[in-house]
Amino acid sequence: QVQLVESGGGLVQAGGSLRVSCVASRNILSFNTMGWYRQTPGKQRELVAVIDSGARTNYEDSVKGRFTISRDSAKNSVYLQMNSLKPEDTAVYYCNAVSSGFPRASYWGQGTQVTVSS
Questions:
Q1: DSSP secondary-structure letter at 75?
Q2: What is the pLDDT at residue 101?
């Protein structure tokens, strides 16, 4: 069973920066994709950023130019650097990993709270 452990959430003022981290229990290069999602109460979980096995990245429109997803395979870690934070970025941020091969398996971390004050 794969475990994903997030850290780095917290409270920050609007315009500030925060980096959240996700450590996987196995080699992250074995996954097809790894990504960050976020969720606020009463809303569906939404994709924020994703990085695939070839290090290609994709971002939700509202975070383009402000957030950067990266990885360090030596540390089995994926990061989300968040700059120019806005109050609407407030959410629980979840790390996700999707396995290679079929059938695909999707794994989730426990989430980390990010709160941006105005």
A1: G
A2: 83
Cβ 83 vs Cβ 66: under 8 Å: yes
**Residue 102: pLDDT over 90:** no
Contact residues for 1 (Cβ-Cβ < 8 A; gap 6+) = 25
The amino acid at residue 92 is: V
**What average pLDDT does the segment 8-20 reach?**
97
**What percent of the chain stands above pLDDT 70?**
100
d(CA 76, CA 9): 19
The residues with which 29 forms a beta bridge, in sequence order, are none
Which H or E run contains 18?
strand 18-24
pLDDT given for residue 80 in this prediction:
98
CA distance 67 to 108: 20
Torsion-angle region of residue 15: left (phi > 0), alpha (psi -120 to 50) or beta?
left
DSSP symbol at 118: -
